[in-house]
Design a protein that fits this description.
Helices cover 13% and strands 34% of the residues. The chain has three helices and eleven strands. An eight-stranded mixed sheet has the order 2-1-6-5-9-8-7-11. A hairpin with a 3-residue loop joins strand 3 and strand 4. The chain is globular, with a radius of gyration of 15 Å. The protein starts with a strand and ends in an 8-residue tail after the last strand.
Length: 151
């Protein structure tokens, strides 16, 4: 599992621009990103596998196009339960706080292909321990809570 891309944007409602590196600030967000606000949605992630799925539907999309800060490879993020912890590199620690989001109706991707994956498969995390993230850094699940079956 690894980081494919890191991205930021200066204004809401725009695709994010891929960067050579970003700095994650604990309990705040991505330095220089418009969405950094200290809420439970400090960092957005989407799997490259989900971007590939949208490409298979005819969308000309790339990392950052779904307004995700970090694009990963090798893990189905949306299948992880809330409370899952991730580690980037040796030191950066994240905790999964939300799966999916409400998509605004003017979404260019939805208009292009009739669907958008971010509302179902994009995830959000709080940053427990920050640091610098670059494409190619390792990404792993460091703790996965046990989910008890419902009756």
């Amino acid at each position: 599992m690894r980081i494919v891309a890191v991205s930021t944007s200066a204004r809401k409602g725009e695709k994010k621009i891929n960067q050579p590196q970003v700095t994650l600030v604990a309990n705040h967000g991505v330095e220089g990103d418009v969405h950094a606000d200290g809420t439970h949605r400090q960092l957005s992630l989407l799997a490259m596998e989900d971007i590939e799925y949208m490409r298979s539907m005819g969308a000309d999309v790339h990392p950052g196009d779904f307004a995700e800060n970090i694009t990963t490879e090798g893990v189905e993020l949306y299948t992880c339960p809330l409370g899952t912890r991730f580690t980037i590199g040796d030191d950066i620690e994240l905790v999964l706080t939300q799966i999916g989001k409400e998509c605004h109706m003017g979404c260019a991707i939805r208009q292009q292909v009739g669907d958008c994956i971010m509302p179902r498969r994009g995830v959000f995390c709080r940053i427990l321990k920050g640091g610098v993230v670059r494409p190619g850094d390792s990404f792993r699940i460091s703790f996965r809570p046990q989910v008890l079956p419902t009756a």
